[in-house]
Amino acid sequence: MKHIELEQQGAVGRSPPRKDGADKVTGRARYLDDLNFPGQLWGRTVRSHVAHGRIREIVWDAAFDWTDVVRVTAADIPGENVVHLIEDDQPMLAADVVRHREEPIALLACADREKLEEALAHVRVEIEELEPVLDPLRSTVVFKSYRIEQAPQGLAQAFADARVIEGTYRVGHQEQMYIEPQAVAAIPREDGGITIYGSMQCPFYVHRALQRLLRLDDSQVAVIQVVTGGGFGGKEDYPSVISGHAALLARKARRPVKMIYKREEDVAATTKRHPAVMKYRTAVEADGTLVALEAEIVMDGGAYVTLSPVVASRGVLHAGGAYRWRHARIDCRVVQTHTPPNGAFRGFGVPQTMFAIESHMERVAVALGIDPLELRRKNALQIGDELPTGQKLTSSVSAREVLDVVAARSDYARKRKEYGRSVGEKRRGIGISLAFHGAGFTGTGEVKLKPRAGVELTDRGARVLSVSTDIGQGTITVFSQMAADALGLALDDVEVAENDTSKMPDSGPTVASRTTMVVGGTITRAAAAMARILQGYVAQVHDVPAAEVSCAGGIFSARGRALAPFAAIAKRYLQERGSLRIIENYRHPPEIRFDDATYRGDAYPCYGWAATAVEVEVDLDTYEISLLDVSTATDVGRAIHPVLAEGQVEGGTVQALGYALLEEHVWDQRGRLLNTRMQNYVIPTALDVPRMHTTLLENPYPSGPYGAKGLGELPMDGPAPAVVGAVLHATGKLIPEIPLSPDRVMRAVLS
Amino acid sequence: MIPVTSARSLSEAYAILHQRPRGLRVLAGGTDLMVAVNARAGLDRIGHVLDIWKVPELRGISGAGGSLRIGALTTYTELMRSREIATHLPALALVSREVGAWAIQNRGTIGGNVCNASPAGDTLPLLLAAEATFLLGGPRGERTVAAHEFFVGYRKTALGADELLLRVDIPLIEKSHLVYRKVGTRKAQSISRTIVAVRKLAPRDVRIAAGCVAPIPLRCRNAEKAVAAGGDVRAALEQDITPIDDVRATAVYRSRVTGNVLLRLLG
Ligand SMILES: Cc1cc2nc3c(=O)[nH]c(=O)nc-3n(C[C@H](O)[C@H](O)[C@H](O)COP(=O)(O)OP(=O)(O)OC[C@H]3O[C@@H](n4cnc5c(N)ncnc54)[C@H](O)[C@@H]3O)c2cc1C
User: Fold this and answer.
1) What is the pLDDT of residues A300-321, one digit of tens each?
2) Mean pLDDT, to the nearest integer, of A400-407?
3) How many independent structural domains does chain B possess?
4) How many CA atoms lie within 13 A of A278 on its CB side?
5) Rounded distance, CA B173 to CA A708, Å?
6) What does DSSP assign to residue A350?
7) What is the DSSP track for A381-415?
8) A734 domain-assigned
9) Which CATH number covers residue A64?
10) Are residues A501 and A575 in the same domain?
11) Is residue A337 domain-shared with residue A281, that is, in the same domain?
12) Interface pTM (ipTM) of the complex?
């Protein structure tokens, strides 16, 4: 860890207990399942049993007693039958055509959960089956395509002059597998509006989707995030679907309706990480200098557009890896298949392309006979280098540094030599990868969104105002730390307001590694503005020059003399002036400019950097891979809360190791997902977590709060290709497709 | 609502079995049955549940009289902690450690593993290789069935509708040695991809059994013969097993790895 000064006063850089920690470990925290509403019904979804087809009829069994069951179909939708997001192509309830298995067609609600289950068994949907397209390479429906070019006129010559190395890399679906499945409750209101309580990342997505669906004005909708048991991107857009469903039922029933998915339903029906097929072609000089890159990336968007354009965009923007290329042409298209829409998942397109480029680097290293670490060091981006978009890196670049730290920490050089000689049925290997991840929204995203956040004065301190959700990553604690320091308050005197769209400023969705950096920065500025106002007020009250007033540890003072506790000033201010609420707009660094039309410019204001070294043992009897040791070095700009930051790195690394080794969805020929349970969709358990050595580096981002830059997604990007490198080292086989299941390892080893 | 009767003794349990209520299902630890109930799989075929968890006669392990006697309700945790098991059949304690995770080990029973008769039941290849016998009992009396005759089809057993599994008996054979290897999907909460057990009586006298490579947990007699004859064990094993593709592994993988593991266990 690059050091956090010990003499410092404030909360930032320390690791106080999480504000939500005690409630969570003692069971006091109330998740949606714990909340009950007078007169509530339970909701269930009637889903498509085919991947593609034309709905003929919904048959309600006449022999069944439907009296206390509320039934909703597309015909009951008062507004537009869409799940409002980017393209609005996804219906809230399929009315004529179904485009994936488990697509919602009708809804049921009943007070008695047993009867509800029975009712579900008495609905039949007759669907004329159409041929599904399941292979993205055969899809002709392109949701969105991108091309990024850097000095393309020189491409042909570069490929003619240098060594050409090609490879194709594949990744499949990955399931977010948050602990708490999708869950919401909808409460109908007197004014015809609706209130939603739910487990979610992006309350305003839900808010706007409900307005469109129910034809409501802004004031008729309130969306309140309750304690949320994980999201990982899976609760970015899907909560709009389940909230829409609960709301439709609640409006028809005129009673509250609660919907909580069963695990199998959640896995089968909701979004996952986009599968991708990525063809890379590179021109490389004999000494290992990377010259030119051509890549063609195809992502599987699933049945509807949802977030695919932005996922693909982020993927393509990182496709060149953390390296310098003189020439590049990167093409990407995201296409339709008749599978559930793929959506957001930690990393958002980058784990896919980073897997491709980093695995490709392994191929290059083998082809040239260069050590893969050396190859990476040699080409790693540095200050002054340009990305394929033409973005010139001017600050906070740590590509080489993270590589060096991880190499030292993992004892890479020695192990590389020793393991290369292993024989017998157990083979060891060590692999390394380099990754980077743009922080905040892509391109002009933040500028268009105009996020707002702030603080308000309370009678003991301050309250943070935003809709940025704590989904387990620690937002509540981190925001409090930042506001506390800006105001000179003790951490306990800062609270975070309930996340309610009818009361809070729209700070944007909790995605894109933007919460600490973008929203936290805005909150910090608002808190600083509040501090200035209060300093002026104290100056007036105590008749001292405002410039000399400061606040630390909750005490206002001037010239070293204590004047008054913050709480006393706050009470007096509130009595005299009623309230103090400061909402700031996010301020985008003006020099950061991006052209959405040409994909040239600064796609992200800054990048996080990470290197991962993975040590494996491959069993040639069973083709199983055991993880022996994992080291990471991660540049986070500034660790606001080092323990939480390390937690992000370690948790993300484990999730990425699951992606690398275990997690694989199996579909049948007709687009049905066969493994929808935690028993057969295999994620790592605590016992599967190897020894981990986590190093945080702090290379500050000048425009970030306290120097912080985005962190949440970065740890997901690098581990998978590091495993590929380690297995290559152990077995001599480069396996260009994850997960590295024993089956796949067997085929490679026996080939 | 499904009626549940909790028996406090074997005779109480037999009284229910004697009545033969429609759709009777026995509940031991529930770690298989409740998963099925939760998934509503075959729920409509369950008419009455007989809970035997508190039947004292079905508990306990003893190592007297040339055989190891393990009560049907013995949990994995008990197998792991038992001195008798540690002395006479340590492999059974080791495999228990690889079943599910703590919660499952505390609740899941050897009898449930046997009666559930999944081809992936982890103790079953060990019991087959150890030539265990199962003591069954009911209102009509008791009988003994050899392990290799108990598993009659995919998740079908020789157990009668009015019978319980009372005990698992394993003959103790001097100087014999039971070894196994489970190849699972991860380090805990892992269903096997394949599992192989070998009981070595003499260098060429072995008993071999495998799981996840046939509709039933399988005694591999061709492989045993090949070992005895000094023949091609891998080829003989191919004659025994009929693996399939499923979400956990391909048939090709299962057959290759079962062979690799068997050869390694044979040493
Ligand atoms: C999370 C999880 C992980 C698991 N991991 C493993 C694993 O790694 N390896 C493995 O092999 N299994 C595993 N299992 C399956 C299960 O735990 C075992 O098969 C266990 O031994 C079942 O025992 P039980 O007492 O819980 O059986 P129950 O669920 O009570 O019963 C299972 C079946 O046997 C019948 N039955 C039970 N006892 C008797 C009896 N004495 N007489 C007649 N019929 C009887 C029941 O009627 C039922 O049909 C796992 C299960 C879960 C939920």
Assistant:
1) 999 999 999 999 999 999 999 9
2) 98
3) 3
4) 36
5) 68
6) H
7) --TT-B-TTBPBP-S---HHHHHHHHHHHTTHHHH
8) yes
9) 3.30.365.10
10) yes
11) yes
12) 0.96
Pocket of ligand 1 from Cβ distances under 6 Å: B 25-33, 35, 52, 72, 99-100, 104, 107-109, 111-113, 115-116, 121-122, 159, 164-165, 189-190
CB atoms A623 and B40 under 8 Å: no
Q: What CATH number did the domain enclosing B222 receive?
A: 3.30.390.50
Q: Are residues B93 and B22 in the same domain?
A: no
| Mean pLDDT, chain A, integer | 97
User: Which residues from B are below 8 Å from A684, CB to CB?
Assistant: 186
| B28 and B71 belong to one structural domain | no
Verify that A77 and A187 share a domain, yes or no: yes
Q: Is the pLDDT of residue A8 over 70?
A: no
List CB contacts of A369: < 8 A, sequence separation 6 or more: none
Q: What percent of chain A has pLDDT over 70?
A: 99
Shared domain for B46 and B63, answered yes or no, is no
Considering only the beta carbons, identify the residue of A624, A662, A680 that sits closest to B183.
A624
Write the CATH number for B153. Answer: 3.30.465.10
Question: Does A420 score more than 90 pLDDT?
Answer: no
- pLDDT over threshold 80, residue A458: yes
Q: Which atom of ligand 1 is nearest to the CA of B159?
A: 43
The mean pLDDT value for A104-117 works out to 97
Q: Rounded to whole angstroms, how far apart are CA atoms A85 and A507?
A: 17
Do B120 and B160 share a domain, yes or no? yes
> CATH code at B25?
3.30.43
Q: Is A624 on the interface with B (CB under 8 A)?
A: yes
Task: Name the domain boundary from A269, A294, A325.
Answer: A269
Give residues 666 to 685 of A whose Cβ lies within 8 Å of B: 666, 674-675, 678-680, 682, 684-685
- Please name the residues between 134 and 153 in chain B that touch chain A, using a CB distance below 8 Å: none
Same structural domain for residues A609 and A504? no
A623 touches B at CB < 8 Å: yes
Closest atom, ligand 1, to C-alpha of B166? 41
Whether residues A25 and A37 share a domain: the answer is: no
Structural domain total, chain A? 3
**Protein residue with least CA distance to atom 43, ligand 1:** B164
Residue A749 is predicted with a pLDDT of 97
Q: Which two tokens stand for residue A472?
A: 């387990």
The whole-number average pLDDT for the span A525-540 is 98
Claim to verify: residue A313 and residue A185 sit in the same structural domain: no
| CA A452 distance to own-chain centroid | 20
* pLDDT at residue A534, rounded to an integer: 98
Cα B204 from Cα B224, distance rounded (Å): 8
If asked whether residues B66 and B147 sit together in one domain, one would say yes
The 10 Å Cβ neighbour count of residue A61 is 12
How far away is chain A from the Cα of B97, in angstroms, using its nearest Cα? 13
DSSP A562-586: EEEEHHHHHHHHHHHHS--EEEEE-
Q: If you search the block for the tokens 């310098």, which residue do you land on? A: A324
Burial (CB count <10 Å: 0-12, 13-18, 19+), residue A228: buried
Provide the residue range defining the domain that includes B81.
58-171
Amino acid A711: pLDDT? 96
Looking at the structure, do residues B73 and B166 belong to the same domain, yes or no?
A: yes
Residues B104 and B201 in one domain: no
Residue A423 is predicted with a pLDDT of 84
Residues A611 and A484 in one domain: no
Report the nearest atom of ligand 1 relative to the CA of B28: 30
Q: What is the extent of the structural domain holding A494?
A: 21-30+451-585
Q: Find the B7 Cα to ligand 1 centroid distance in Å.
A: 19
A621 lies within 8 A of chain B by CB = yes
Q: Which ligand 1 atom sits closest to the C-alpha of B190?
A: 8
What are phi and psi for residue A244, nearest 5 degrees?
-60, -45
Asked whether residue A1 is assigned to any structural domain, the reply reads no
Mean pLDDT of B123-152: 98
A10 touches A227 (CB < 8 A) = no
**A667 shares its domain with A737:** yes
